[in-house]
Amino acid sequence: MINRQNYLDIKEYLNHLEKIEQLEPATIKRAWSHLRHLLEWADEKPLPKSQHIDPTFPAYIINYHNEGKPLASSTIIKCLAQARQFYYYAKLTWPVRYKPLSESWITTLKPPRKIRNGNGLKHHQFYTLEQVKIITAYQTDSLHLIRAKVAAAMLFCSGMRADALASLPISCVDLENNRVLQLPEMGVRTKNYKAGITYLLPIEELLAVITNWDDLVRETLPQNCLWYSPISRDNSRLLPTTNAYVGRHSTIQKDLRKICLAAGIPYLSPHKLRHGHVMYAIQHAQTIADLKAISKNVMHASITITDAVYGILSDSDVEKFIKSLK
């Protein structure tokens, strides 16, 4: 039976993530799914006495099976990371109750090295500039497919997230200055409600596709309407819509799948266009200042995040760099 106080503590932590940290509902939902394992592991024992529970939480989560299947390595890593964050929060919020747990013990909540490092070579998937050029060069009269080409061009050039594009008003697109204003106050849905200005990569072929669409929406719709405009069922006209429903980024996913199929390009998720943006920019960076600019442009808190998440060099990049050393 789950200890009631443990449950209340974790619910208070999730409330903190929602009200104070202002994290997205989907992020909080994932945190809860990870912390449920912590509750089940502790069972009736109070979490402040976690160091006395046998087996340890890392051992428990590594050997956990759901319908006969073990958890994925990525899930194990996230469960342990979320547990560490909860314990740090608990020690600050309830210092007396959680005093028995030392910070050194909390740091032991990590997977073994073989899980952290993964098995085999890592293959970083993303859209290349060449693939995006093939997509945007596809000839079509279909308004839906034209919009799909715009999604590929804009997401690659800007590095923005699909949900930001889906909720972007026309007034936030400033092609005269080659930039996009990602402003939550204007209705743009950004991660953790961050505001920022994103500058587009100066790739002429892609900018031409973006500019043509921008001209079309401005001729057709008011400034407060969505730039990535909904299209009528008969595929004949843009619809004047000012609010993006929650989950509208799935429209971009469907559009991208259709244009990839039509252009003969393997489909990857819209987020892989963001990866492509960062990889292309990193490959052309020459200084630390360049890397900092890339990090800021994709609205990361630090260059470390950009490098850790996106800056994974491909084998061919590594080979090219090493062979250039003389």
Which helices and strands occur, and which strands form pairs?
Elements: H1 4-19, H2 25-42, H3 57-62, E1 65-66, E2 69-70, H4 73-93, H5 103-106, H6 113-117, H7 129-137, H8 143-158, H9 162-166, E3 173-174, E4 179-182, E5 196-199, H10 204-220, H11 249-263, H12 271-284, H13 288-297, H14 303-309, H15 315-323
Antiparallel strand pairs: 1-2, 3-4, 4-5
Question: What's this entry about, in short?
Answer:
The chain is mostly helical and 326 residues long.
Architecture overview:
By secondary structure, this protein is mainly alpha-helical. The protein has two domains: 4-117, DNA polymerase, domain 1; 129-277, hpI Integrase, Chain A, CATH 1.10.443. Helices cover 53% and strands 4% of the residues. The chain is built from 15 helices and five strands. The chain has helices at 4-19, 25-42, 57-62, 73-93, 103-106, 113-117, 129-137, 143-158, 162-166, 204-220, 249-263, 271-284, 288-297, 303-309, 315-323, and strands spanning 65-66, 69-70, 173-174, 179-182, 196-199. It has a three-stranded antiparallel β-sheet with strand order 3-4-5, with no helix packed on it. Strands 1-2 form a two-stranded antiparallel ribbon. A hairpin with a 2-residue loop joins strand 1 and strand 2 (69-70). It is elongated.
Distance between the termini: 65 Å
Radius of gyration: 23 Å
What number is the mean pLDDT? 89
Helical fraction: 40-55%
Taken as a percent bin, the fraction of beta residues is under 5%
Relevant CATH superfamily of the largest domain = Intergrase catalytic core
CATH fold title of the largest domain: hpI Integrase, Chain A
String of helices and strands:
HHHEEHHHHHHEEEHHHHHH
**Strand-pairing-aware structural class:** mainly alpha
Q: How many helical stretches?
A: 15
Biggest sheet, spatial arrangement of strands: 3-4-5
Number of domains: 2
Give the class-level CATH name of the largest domain.
Answer: Mainly Alpha
Report the principal-axis shape: elongated
- Unreliable spans are none
For the secondary structure, the number of strands is: 5
